Amino acid sequence: MAVSGASGSGQMICLDTLVRLGRAAHTPGASGRPGGSGPPRRLSLPDGMTVPLGCDAVAVPARFGSELMPRLPRVGCVYADETHWWWIVPSDSDYALRWPAPAHYATGAILPDTVRGRLPVLIHQPDGTVPYTPPIPLYLALCRVTGTAPAWSRPVSA
User: Fold this and answer.
1) pTM assigned to the model
2) At residue 8, does pLDDT exceed 80?
3) I need a labelling partner for 146 at 20 to 30 A (CA). Which of 15, 18, 121, 139 fits?
4) Residue 152: phi, psi to the nearest 5?
5) Contact 112, 101 (CB under 8 A)
6) How many whole angstroms separate alpha carbon 61 and alpha carbon 84?
7) What local confidence, expressed as pLDDT, does residue 5 receive?
8) CA distance linking residue 95 with residue 117, whole number of Å
9) What is the pLDDT of residues 73-117, one digit of tens each?
10) CB atoms within 10 A of CB 148
11) Pairing of strands 104-106, 56-61
12) d(CA 49, CA 45)
């Protein structure tokens, strides 16, 4: 699906672009850090990595990090600081999916203002040039270690 100007001479915009523009407008820190403390801080990928599907991150408390690694079929770039491990996932990996608490989903791999001081450091880099951890296995593993039922297996009430 695409939308163009009424005269037909405008640039075509696909629905995915409109969704991304709408999400960017509502992303905390996307236009600068609140309080005027500078531009948003983002996890930076190692040289040579490509992001054909965009780049978001899922933060989990550090106590779960080592439990998640062996449960995953593929581990992409993982960063860590004193309190969290950050997993790189394709953009929009939160679409129609609520990540279980205490996970934090970071659109654009932008760190929240609560992360102060040094940026998290890279603790795992995959072979190849793609930085992603598959989001569904990460989600299921995170549900398992937190004791949370996946969203699609919860009872629906009318």
Assistant:
1) 0.75
2) no
3) 121
4) -80, -10
5) no
6) 4
7) 47
8) 30
9) 999 999 999 999 999 999 999 998 889 999 999 999 999 887 777
10) 17
11) antiparallel
12) 6
Picking from 89, 120, 131, the residue whose alpha carbon sits closest to that of residue 106 is 89
How far is C-alpha 55 from the geometric centre of its chain's CA atoms?
6
Amino acid at 10: G
Question: What are the angstrom distances between the C-alpha of 107 and each of 36, 73, 91, 92?
Answer: 20, 23, 7, 8
Q: What is the residue whose two structure tokens read 């991304």? A: 20
Q: Can you say how many angstroms the Cα of residue 47 is from the centroid of all Cα atoms in its chain? A: 19
Report the distance separating Cα 49 and Cα 25, nearest Å: 27
| DSSP single-letter state for residue 119 | P
Task: Kindly give the pairing relationship between strand 84-89 and strand 104-106.
Answer: unpaired
Residue 37 pLDDT grade (very low, low, confident, very high; cuts 50, 70, 90):
low
Phi/psi of residue 144, each to 5°? -65, -50
Q: Which residues contact 132 (CB under 8 A, 6 or more apart)?
A: 53, 74, 76, 77, 88, 89, 90
On whether the CB atoms of residues 16 and 22 are closer than 8 A, the answer is no
Residue indicated by tokens 């995959």? 126
Can you read off the two tokens belonging to residue 132?
């992603």
Tokens of 24: 């960017």
| Backbone dihedral angles phi then psi of residue 113, each to the nearest 5 degrees | -60, -20
